[in-house]
Design goal:
The complex is a heterodimer of chains A (278) and B (131). Chain A has 278 residues and is of the alpha/beta class. Chain A has helices spanning 100-107, 189-192, 206-210, 220-230, 246-259; strands spanning 2-7, 28-33, 36-40, 59-63, 87-93, 123-129, 132-136, 139-145, 153-158, 163-167, 197-201, 234-238, 265-268, 274-276. Chain A is 15% helix and 27% strand. Chain B has 5 helices and 6 strands. Classes of the chains: A alpha/beta (278), B alpha+beta (131).
Chain lengths: 278, 131
């Protein structure tokens, strides 16, 4: 299973030399195995995706954790949507009030976007998911609701030989007690348990988090503790705050490593990073 | 064991922040969490007991009407909520751990998750002002 990070910035894209190393595009990760491709979230990192004339691929699956703008703003610029020879499946969290089609159409319709969802040339198939299990090609996928404002899921993706857990927007320590030690009381822990790689929200510092409780995001300390409790092998911290420059992020990860000595590898996710799980 | 649904977890986080006694059960009535104010009613702490089967914790209460007649458990708000997936409220008397009769009100509600699934129930105990 190959993991390609196309966007690791949270909330809003950033540009400029101060964020060039870790990247300014919002959430998008491409997972591939054999001739199957999963695109996780449709943030601005999605615009760089193309099949490079790979004609053997006839289907692409987009898995959306939720429908906040930083996770769907790239959809309108996703090239496969405009290829009539492709089947594009979108999997997104169900809501009690509106269909996935109706919620996506809020963005993919005038005045926000000139092309309607129903007018996309590809064959588009929508799937509403909740606490679900489903198979796509060689992948077995579990989605579970996690703590974040609005219907939001995380994904556990099992390939033939490895497991990748993807929880880019998550506030597992919401509440007065913080992160519980009993795993049954931790949002999202089932998704990450013993994963080979976990990509997890770490938008804030501990100090910043004190003023942003309930915003739906995690601080770096809680993210690493979550990964430790889940006993993952490798953690990538993502959804970098748009106000954090490369220099600040380097300082934050350096300080974090000085304070914590975990047995697993952990580092900051960077746009362009590619990881092969074997 | 798998983690609880986030709707249950969020109810526990809320209960942790409240100064009123809160009990959370699973769909079969097993007590999966109670907060610190509730510890005074049960006479024990969640830290010590952990989760309790319904047969264990339900016998702690001796619920009565104002004339001292014992109530059947099926009339309790929480039991009715577990049966009907509907909220209930009732004021009645319980015998405290010290043998003293105390008037309380209980409000119970079902936890219905995003997928419309019944996940458990919550009971909140209030000090009753009037019967």
């Amino acid at each position: 299973m190959k993991i390609s990070l196309r966007g690791v910035r949270g909330s809003i894209p950033t540009t400029g030399p101060e964020t060039a190393h870790y990247g300014g595009n919002t959430s998008c990760t491409v997972v591939s195995e054999k001739d199957w491709i999963l695109v996780l979230d449709g943030g601005s990192g999605m615009q760089k995706f193309n099949l490079l004339n790979n004609t053997s691929i006839k289907r692409i699956d987009i898995l959306l954790t939720h429908l906040h703008l930083d996770h769907i703003q790239g959809l309108g610029f996703f090239n496969p949507f405009f290829d009539p020879s492709l089947d594009v499946h979108i999997w997104g969290p169900a809501s009690n009030t509106h269909s996935l089609h109706s919620r996506l159409s809020r963005y993919l319709s005038p005045p926000l976007f000139p092309v309607l969802l129903r007018d996309l040339p590809c064959k588009l198939i929508l799937h509403e998911i909740e606490n679900s299990s489903f198979d796509i090609g060689p992948f077995t996928i579990q989605s579970r609701y996690v703590i974040h404002p609005g219907p939001t899921v995380g994904f556990r993706i099992a390939g033939q030989h490895s497991v990748f857990a993807y929880i880019p927007d998550h506030e597992p320590a919401l509440g007065s007690m913080g992160l519980f030690t009993d795993k049954r009381w931790i949002s999202g822990i089932d998704l990450a348990l013993n994963a080979d790689l976990l990509l997890h929200d770490a938008q804030f510092t501990t100090l910043e988090y004190k003023n942003k409780i309930g915003w739906g995001h995690c601080n770096m300390e809680d993210a690493t503790r979550f990964a430790s409790l889940a006993e993952v092998k490798h953690l990538l911290l993502t959804h970098h705050d748009p106000s954090h420059s490369d220099e600040q992020l380097n300082e934050l990860i350096s300080d974090l490593k000085k304070r914590n000595n975990y047995s697993f590898d952990y580092e900051l996710a960077a746009e362009g990073m590619e990881i092969e799980l074997t | 064991m798998p983690a609880y649904e986030i709707e249950i977890i969020l109810n526990r986080q809320l209960a942790d922040c409240l100064s009123i006694p809160v009990f959370i059960t699973d769909t079969t009535g097993n007590l999966i969490f109670y907060n610190e104010p509730a510890e005074k009613i049960l006479g024990t702490s969640f830290e010590d007991t952990g989760e309790m089967h319904v047969e264990t914790w339900s016998t702690i209460f001796k619920q009565q009407d104002e004339h001292g007649n014992l109530w059947q458990p099926e009339n309790l708000p929480l039991v009715r909520t577990l049966r009907d997936c509907y909220p209930y409220h009732k004021t009645y008397w319980i015998e405290s751990l010290k043998g003293k009769m105390e008037k309380i009100s209980v409000t119970s509600y079902p936890i219905i998750g995003r997928a419309g699934k019944f996940l458990g129930a919550v009971a909140i105990f209030w000090e009753a002002k009037d019967l």
